Amino acid sequence: GGKLDLVATNVTMQVVAVRTGNKDGTFSGSTSVALTWSGGTMSGTGRTLVPVGSTLIINGVAHTLSRLLDVSAPATWTDGDIAFADGSLAVRAASVLTLNPTTTVTATGSSGTNTLINQGSIVKIGAGTARLAAGATAVALNNSNQVTVQAGTLDISGGGGNTGQMLSQASATLSFGATLAWTGGSIIGAG
To answer: What is the pLDDT of residues 143-166, one digit of tens each?
Structure first.
């Protein structure tokens, strides 16, 4: 454990591994190669940018997100729940967030406004379950591009909105446990 408290306007790091502890402060920075988030807290008034040309891996134990995690590169979430506490995870255009848990990973809201923003692509693979949990401060999905469920289950119970496309293959499950406002877009598939 430990705490990395940064007060800077723009910092670029080559390789970052956040295992436990906190990344806090008014930090606005990016990683140019790889960010592995294996647990701990990202908080503060800045944002964490994962730009084109880098990667993000979310694994390990429990995570807390209390800032903007801004992803413009390939990202994979395999293990460890994420507690959003007035946080947002943004998947930008031309980026892919792959959800590949072996069992179940859950995004919960613990306080504030919490959002998974998809302007790129979210792909659920593998037999496990990925869940956006319901609750008073749930994690809402705001999808304006594409969500694809190839295998396992994607449970969207945090509400949100959709103007994009949602695809589910016959061997997969796409479920909605809360109202998702449809202002366009479509659902395609047998799952």
So the answer is: 999 999 999 999 999 999 999 999
